[in-house]
Recover the amino acids of this structure.
């Protein structure tokens, strides 16, 4: 039996009959047509379809789909959780969050994003390393660190029971840091005529500031009376944050830096601005330094960080202790400082002269300001 009745702006059909096995059937819904006669014809056609289909086929089609089996999410589904509940919740630096997002988007998502996190195998990690073969070991380690962090978060938060794979890192290779010998650095400083560029060079080379710390430095951070800089902030792109490692520090100024800052003093809040009066950008820093390097007949490479390397290397060559360099440079780990504890070529020559003098039974040649060689003739060198 079919009944048609109005229901608001629609016509409702009501179909009722018995299946051949005697079971009752009833379906009452709004017809997908606008007129009563159309609803009548649509309901009659619907009744014929149901009877032709049969009870079993109809009930199978009407049954809800089986609930999906709950299981660990894919890396693509889990990554936003890691980003929110690890990187952002723990207030990682903007640069750290940006680097992690870039690593996931460029390297992890294309290769592993579609895999369930408990299905990522050691073979998958090996294949990822193969895809990254053109990159440096340090860069590959950074990518693997992000993957490892995501999987470890899944374990810590109970999403999976255990690490599904072994993430093997490359052993870091010791690299010789680029830096300027004393004469080259002096030539760079003397060739820098523009006052703002001179301040830039001395902040990096005489005080060891990082690029972001130079960009963020304010006059309120400069204590001209005590002759010190208070490093309290750094810049990442257009964002101001704490210095790298979330550690501030105080750095005494050299006389050259103090004079340069005194003659550069202006009314702005930042110590350095671009030529147009805007916030100093990474590109402006790079262009200013490259111009100074060309005027000094030095190869324009290494970026501003070559001057920070120069600062640390000159301190080491002068006999300053590793712990003192660590504090002045703001290193979080003494291992970072140890990379600079090498001798300049001049000091290496002095060291070899000391060794020769020891072999010949003569008094050792002691470099000025360095007591380490004073006891060379009293101890065994082998």
């Amino acid at each position: 039996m079919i009944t048609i009745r109005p229901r608001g702006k629609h016509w409702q059909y009501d179909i009722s009959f018995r299946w051949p096995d005697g079971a009752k059937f009833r379906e009452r819904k709004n017809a997908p047509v606008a007129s009563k006669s159309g609803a009548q014809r649509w309901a009659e056609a619907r009744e014929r379809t149901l009877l032709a289909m049969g009870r079993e086929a109809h009930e199978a089609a009407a049954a809800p789909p089986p609930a999906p089996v709950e299981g660990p999410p894919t890396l693509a589904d889990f990554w936003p959780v890691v980003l929110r509940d690890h990187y952002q919740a723990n207030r990682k630096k903007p640069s750290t969050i940006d680097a992690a997002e870039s690593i996931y988007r460029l390297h992890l998502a294309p290769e592993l994003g579609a895999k369930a996190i408990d299905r990522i195998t050691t073979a998958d990690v090996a294949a990822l390393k193969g895809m990254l073969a053109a990159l440096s070991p340090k860069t590959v380690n950074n990518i693997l660190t992000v993957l490892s962090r995501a999987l470890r978060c899944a374990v810590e938060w109970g999403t999976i029971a255990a690490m599904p794979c072994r993430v093997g890192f490359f052993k870091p290779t010791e690299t010789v840091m680029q830096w300027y010998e004393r004469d080259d650095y002096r030539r760079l400083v003397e060739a820098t005529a523009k006052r703002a560029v001179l301040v830039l060079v001395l902040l990096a080379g005489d005080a060891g500031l990082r690029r972001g710390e130079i960009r963020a430095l304010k006059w309120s951070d400069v204590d001209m009376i005590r002759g010190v800089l208070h490093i309290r902030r750094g810049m990442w792109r257009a964002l101001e944050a704490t210095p790298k490692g979330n550690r501030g520090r105080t750095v005494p100024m050299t006389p050259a830096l103090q004079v340069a800052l005194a003659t550069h003093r202006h009314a702005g809040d930042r110590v350095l601005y671009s030529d147009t009066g805007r916030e100093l950008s990474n590109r402006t820093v790079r262009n200013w330094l490259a111009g100074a390097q060309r005027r000094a007949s030095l190869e324009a490479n290494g970026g501003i960080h070559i001057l920070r390397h120069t600062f640390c290397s000159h301190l080491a060559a002068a006999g300053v202790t590793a712990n003192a360099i660590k504090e002045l440079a703001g290193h979080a780990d003494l291992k970072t400082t140890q990379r600079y504890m090498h001798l300049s070529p001049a000091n290496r020559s002095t060291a070899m002269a000391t060794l020769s003098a020891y072999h010949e039974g003569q008094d050792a040649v002691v470099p000025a300001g360095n007591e380490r060689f004073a006891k060379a003739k009293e101890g065994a060198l082998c």
Observations:
- The chain has four domains: 2-62, 75-156, 182-338, 345-382.
- The CA atoms of residues 14 and 349 lie 103 Å apart.
- The chain has 15 helices and eight strands.
